[in-house]
Amino acid sequence: MGPRALAVLGAVLSLVAGDRALAGELPPPLAWEEPGGLQRLFLQLPFEAPSVAGPGTFDVELRLIYSNTILVESTQTASIDVDLETAQFTGLLRYGVGSGLELELAVPVSVDYGGFLDGFIESVEGIFSALNPSRRNRPRNLSRFRVNDNGKVAWVDGPEAGLGDVWVGAKEAALGQAGGWPALALRAAVKLPTGRYPFGSGELDAGGSLMLGWCFEWIAVRLEIDGMTPTTTLRILGMATRPYGAAQAGLAVSTSDSLALHLQLSAATSPIEGTGLSTIDDGVRYVLLGFTYLVSPSWGLEFGAVENIYSPYRGADLAFFLAGRGRL
């Protein structure tokens, strides 16, 4: 981005923010994670700021990622036919144990069903003459999760609900922001085999994150890099797995004492390899626009709309993010 473009961006942000700022540190990024396809069976670490809960305090969050997914592809040896909408609820608890360290516990529960967004998505795609070929000549509002790899078939037709794989983690604030250097935090996490297919792999995954953040009077920039690895194959289908990762970048801009706007980018590689299906083997990329509204200094509501315009035939086709978070 050239100097002129940077100057224009700075002027726009200045007009948006004026001389107003949220009290204290700006809200954290929206805690997006990959909800679509087979990637959702594996450990996905949410986007977070490098700050941690204070000693002896609890941060709590209840979030919903609502997504519409359609993945249709086949080869001579493998196929995938996923067409559904998913409401994934996650309860997240963070406890500060002192010395810049917190413990985390995340419990996901998901519901797959036919949904209601197919007609809306087709209308929007029709306006831009960009209809997803997978949607042509297909009944709307299906609920289907079928995968076939070398004769091993795992399928679910119709509505389904269940507990996903719970994960636990520890996060340490390693450095504070100073002298132009960002605040830095490290996180380690383990996903436990508590969920069943198609809401969890039923296997153990391990991973970690590096989180960076620059927070100024009315603007904050956050970056996160995740690295994860399954500890075995996806046994239900016999699919080979590999280490995988994600990168997220976020910009938060204060527009008043209670409102902040978010622009976030997300990219993730796949934990599965060797199927010959790009919808499974290749990564996904998303753009998120949203906001945080502070009900009080300690409690906030969050909303975001998410689109995978850079990987339109992989991952969730369209998603919405809704969350409430606070500090006890």
- What's the helix-strand series? HEEEHEEEEEEEEEHEEE
Percent in strands: over 45%
pLDDT < 50 runs, ≥5 residues: 1-23
The first-to-last residue Cα distance is 42 Å
Count of helical segments?
3
* Count of the separate structural domains: 1
Tell me the overall shape.
globular
Mean pLDDT: 90
CATH-assigned homologous superfamily: monomeric porin ompg
Overall structural class, as computed from helix and strand content, comes to: mainly beta
- How many β-strands, per DSSP? 15
CATH-level-2 architecture: Beta Barrel
Question: What does the radius of gyration come to?
Answer: 20 Å
Helix content: under 10%
In which order are the strands of the major sheet placed?
A: 1-2-3-7-8-9-10-11-12-13-14-15
Q: Mind summarizing the main beta sheet?
A: 12 strands, antiparallel, barrel
**CATH class label:** Mainly Beta
CATH topology: Porin
How would you characterize the overall build of this protein?
It is a single chain. The chain is built from three helices and 15 strands. The chain has helices spanning 3-17, 118-127, 278-281; strands spanning 58-74, 78-98, 101-113, 144-149, 152-157, 160-163, 167-175, 183-191, 205-215, 219-230, 244-254, 259-268, 284-296, 299-307, 318-327. It has one domain (36-327): Beta Barrel (Porin), CATH 2.40.160. Helix content is 9%, strand content 49%. It is mainly beta and 328 residues long. A hairpin with a 3-residue loop joins strand 9 (205-215) and strand 10. The N and C termini lie far apart (42 Å).
